[in-house]
# Entry
Amino acid sequence: MIGVLMVVGSAMAFGAMAIMARIAYADGVDTPTLLALRFTLAGVVLAVLARLRGVDLPRRRDLAAVAMLGGIGYGAQAGTFFTALTLAPAGIVALLLYLHPALVAVLAALFVHERMTPQKLVALAIALGGMTLTVAPALSAGAQAFPRLPLGIALGLAAAGIYAVYIVAGTRLTARVPALALATIVTASAALVFIVVCIFTGANLPRSTAGWLAVAGIALVSTVAAITLFFAGLARIGPTQASTLSTIEPVVTVGLAALLLDERIAPIQLAGGALILAAVILLARAPVAQAEAERATPASQP
# Structure
């Protein structure tokens, strides 16, 4: 039960991030500044936690690989996601990000030689159908409130695609580098990238206490606490249940966006989001079904 509560808490913390980002933007912060502050604060806290727990950081080739994963992969994903939040409703951006498990299944089949089972193919079809229902009404009805909505949706889809590449690329590193060390280096590398961007473009810091609290919330609640809770819960309940429970993240974002930002999502878009989350659950359970099928197969068969 504790593991379940940890993963649910992590998903809620991640789900609140888009709302706090919109509050920070309203206070004058731009995307590079927000991400520089987020990753710097989170990186410092994670580094302290790693030191207190005696976690060794990776060295040489692993260190370079993790730094590239953070600076290029996670940095690009965060940049596209947070920029999308300035151009499209937070709920839609959050739902589009959850296409990444379907994209991971495709990339894993192409590059990691994972088997593309009928269950995964059905999940991909469901995810694509859900994306269509989520995006199509927004394109026709959201231009008034969000004049650059098509670009926002494109960036939301790009964030999902980059995140999928990031996950597949990091698969082998997770076997060699402890989770806390991985999170620390990834976060610090992303911080360095956005600090450099701010040096060249100028920083737009929050103008009020509300803006600073939103930035601190993104760094400490939606990054450090969310990551720590997820890994702690993952160790207790396993990847399948953790992945399934994490699907409440965009539900939290949609609910908070309606409550705090007065964003409304049409019923057909909610149906599309439900299909996307159903595909995620189906993909999360696919490894379990595959393992059970393999155990049921006689050993004499190839």
